[in-house]
Design goal:
Layout: E1 11-16, H1 23-36, E2 41-45, H2 51-60, H3 67-91, E3 95-99, H4 102-112, H5 120-126, E4 135-140, H6 143-153, H7 160-183, E5 189-193, H8 198-216, H9 221-234
Parallel strand pairs: 1-3, 1-4, 2-3, 4-5
Helix pairs in contact: 1-8, 2-3, 3-4, 4-7, 8-9
The structure holds adenosine-5'-triphosphate (ATP) and magnesium ion.
Length: 236
Amino acid sequence: MKMNASSWHGLFIVLEGIDGCGKTTIGKMLFSFFQQHHLPVLLTAEPSQGKIGKIIRENLQDSSVHPAIDALLFAADRIDHGTNEILPALKKGNIVISDRYIDSSLIYQTTQGKNSQISMDWVKELNKFCLIPDRIYLLDIDANLSLARRKKQNSTLNEQMEKFEKLAFQQEIRNAFLKLAREDLTKNHRIVDASKQPEEILREILKDLKDICISKGLSWKENLSKAKKFLIKLDH
Ligand SMILES: Nc1ncnc2c1ncn2[C@@H]1O[C@H](COP(=O)(O)OP(=O)(O)OP(=O)(O)O)[C@@H](O)[C@H]1O
Ligand SMILES: [Mg+2]
C-alpha cells in the first residue's frame, strides 16, 4: 500500500543534506515558526526514538556491522516511524518535519556499502513501504563550509589526515544528494542554498511551503484559517 499526500491532511516535510548543513538548526526554526502561528507541528528525526532506531544508534558506533544490516534496519525503522509516529500526526493535520529520511538511506547505505554491492535499487525497494513526503528540502552546502561549521561546534573534531578523508567523503555524499534531488521523478525535492543565513533559508522554505499549502488547501480544511495567517505574513 503506497501512502502519499492524498492520504493525510497535514504536511510532511523532510530536511536532508550532509553533516553540518543545518538540518537541526532549520528544523528547530521551522518548528518554532509553526508553533508561534498556532499550527500543530511535530519535529522528528531519523534514526527514530523507537525500538529499531535505538538498535541503529548502537550500531552506528560499530564499524563491523554489515552495511546490508544497516540498510535493512534503517528501512524497518522508517516503516515503524511512519506508522506509529508520522502518519498519526499527519492524519490529525500536523505539519511533520523529519530531520533526515529516505534520501539519507539511499546515499549513506550505498556509499558505505560500495564494496558489499549494495545498490540504490535494492535500498529503494526496501523503502517502498514508507510514506512519501510532500516536500524534501536538500540543504545544499560546500563540504568545506559544513566542516568548518562542525569544527566550530565541536573543537575536538579531527587532525589533518582524518579531516581530508572526511572532506572527500562529505563531497561525495553532497554530490549524491544533488544527483538524487535532480533526478527526482515525483518533483518533490527543492534544493536550498544552505550557505546563506538561517533566517534567509527559513524564509525561502516558508515561501515554497506556501505553494503546497495552497495546492493542499481543500484537503487541509482544519488548519486552513490558521495557515492563511502565516501565508499572508509571508507576503510582507
Ligand atoms: N545557515 C547557517 N549559517 C551559519 N551557521 C549555521 C547555519 N546553519 C547551521 N549552522 C551552524 O552549523 C552547525 C551545524 O548545524 P546543524 O547541527 O544544524 O547541522 P546538521 O545538518 O543538523 O548536522 P548533523 O548532520 O551533524 O546533525 C551548528 O553549530 C549550527 O549552529
Ligand atoms: Mg543534526
